[in-house]
């Protein structure tokens, strides 16, 4: 199994890059795991309490479960990936069975910041986009897709997203084997990653 870790700040385009990589690979040979699925289960908290959580701090992620699942996938076992709702801001009761694939992609803002998780990756990728570009994309996405209003997005950006980005995410760039500049769509870089994967599939 070849395991890729893809990190980068919010809105840099990780999900988009992953979709572009996966699009042209055989469906049954690639699997994707998102760090977002592993936000801690906060169902014991009220909605009001949940809004106070810093969702950009590493402590908000159940890294132990994520690492355990990757270990199980490497052993050839199917894992039950949690489902996270951005609207409810907690984990759902349902899970998704995720089978092991020849290539597994693990993407998320903090996947290169956790040393134990980082060690599991054969290839480490950091997607870079400037902070103003990321904020614009995040504003559009969170208001259109994640049910947040403008004020909430901006307050969260100032109080959690930006400080945590500077403390944990940007420094994790130094661990990357490949940095993808993504201020605009970067088909060349995506092709390079796809070629590396294809070489490993044959
Ligand atoms: N290179 C790009 N240029 C313009 N918009 C982009 C680019 N990459 C992604 N986007 C858009 O920005 C938003 C955030 O992208 P996404 O892939 O969800 O980022 P991430 O997973 O890193 O948070 C989405 O609406 C996506 O369509
Ligand atoms: N309830 C939540 C949980 C997380 N977030 C934000 O998601 C961002 C990470 O996801 P990306 O797809 O943008 O990489 C992170 O910056 C959290 O602030 C949220 O808004 N609400």
TrEMBL record:
It catalyses: uridine + ATP = UMP + ADP + H(+); cytidine + ATP = CMP + ADP + H(+). One of its GO terms (molecular function) is ATP binding. SUPFAM superfamilies: P-loop containing nucleoside triphosphate hydrolases. Residues 3-188 form the Phosphoribulokinase/uridine kinase domain. Pfam families: PRK (PF00485). GO terms for biological process: CTP salvage; UMP salvage. InterPro entries: P-loop_NTPase, PRK/URK, Uridine_kinase-like. This is Uridine kinase.
